[in-house]
Amino acid sequence: MFNRRQWLSNAGCGFGSLALSALAHLDASAATANPLAPKPPHFPPKARSVIFLYMHGGASHIDSFDYRPELERQHGKKLPDSVNTGRNKFNANLDTILKSPWRFQRHGKSGAWVSDLFPHVSEVADDLCFIKSMYGNNNAHTPATLELHTGSQSFMRPSIGAWVTYGLGSENKNLPGFVTICPPLTYSGQRNFGAAFLPAAYQGTMIGTNRIPAKDARFSNIDNNSTNAADQRRMLDLLQAGNREQLEQTGRDEMLEARIASFELAFRMQAHAPEVLDISDESQQALSLYGIDDASTENYGRELLLARRFVERGVRFVHVAHTGGRGGRWDQHSGLVKGHGGNAKACDKPIAGLIRDLKQRGLLDETLVVWGTEFGRTPEVQNKTGRGHHAQGFTFWMAGGGIKAGTTYGATDEFGYHAVESPVHLHDLHATILHMLGLDHERLTYRYSGRDFRLTDVNGHVLHDIIA
Q1: Can you give the residue range of the structural domain that contains 158?
Q2: Considering its fold, how many domains does the chain have in total?
């Protein structure tokens, strides 16, 4: 004889892994709680949603946005011992300076330094705020990527997107509150957009992976060709009746509520998700803006166009990784010119297109765009044509959502090695992102295993100087 949990599991299997990925929405009239019902922020927000552009593998700051002329003057020489000290034991055998193969110029009224690796992004430099003094705690991909996404290098912690949806809920009951578009499944994979010990409702929902073209990416397991909508609705009503009976007997059960809620969302998404993923209603001008009419930029351009379509429909957090193609990444230990050159060509025009599109639609003011990577690259050469991992100083930029446009914050030393002026730890970045959404990172907590947890743990400072 089945117990109720076994029955629920078997009865709900037609909705597949979407239930396990848990994206919970329930009608307000439902007896169970709606984990993603809109929640008030702690204070008036600057931004309504976030688009997080993750450059997978470690994009080089000193070849993109952090101009260090000393690298040109001392190309081929040994990096001074006074600089090559501190935490970077990961690349202790590297010592010869490599100048950037790309030319830097100032751009816009702000005079921001951008290399010709990113010619299109340079054209929107006045809309960006560069943070050139980022640093993290690890030079290895997996812990660094985890720290970027969850605030922890090793422990099971909720991702920033999960914390945001936990704190604010969602504005669209027919779509997930947190979406990740074609993510890589390496460097801890789903932990980078998971919910960990938060209720499963706050976990990110995948649309495909980086192993398939974006044009073929879909939400998994929402199509049901064997059961019509009326029969599905009757099945869900039966599940909900059992759920209400269970809750009357036992009280709140977050795991059970999230599972049933995910069934409800899967049912509604069958009608609403295809419309978001279908870009046939976009104008040719919009497609061209994102580079979807060019084979070299089509894939990432499509991902960023989807990101815009999601945020304009109220999705709270959209994560869009750029991996350098199926199975690739920005990890050029050798072949820097070819690798970074190809990666930048594929995403440069789409990124600039996203900024322009959000701006002309009036969405940039309420959408915080964050560009970043798990760490930068070494000023020293590796394997004759590449660079090593470098977490001691690197660059992020942010745009929209209440951030001061056309500004630069912080700096690395003359070699781009250490963050020396206004250093910004990843905890500070997280605190600032939450602040822009109206969330106090010290108040946004969840009690688990006998203590209160938060995204920034016991650290983090809001960067008030970059807020408009």
Answers
A1: 4-466
A2: 1
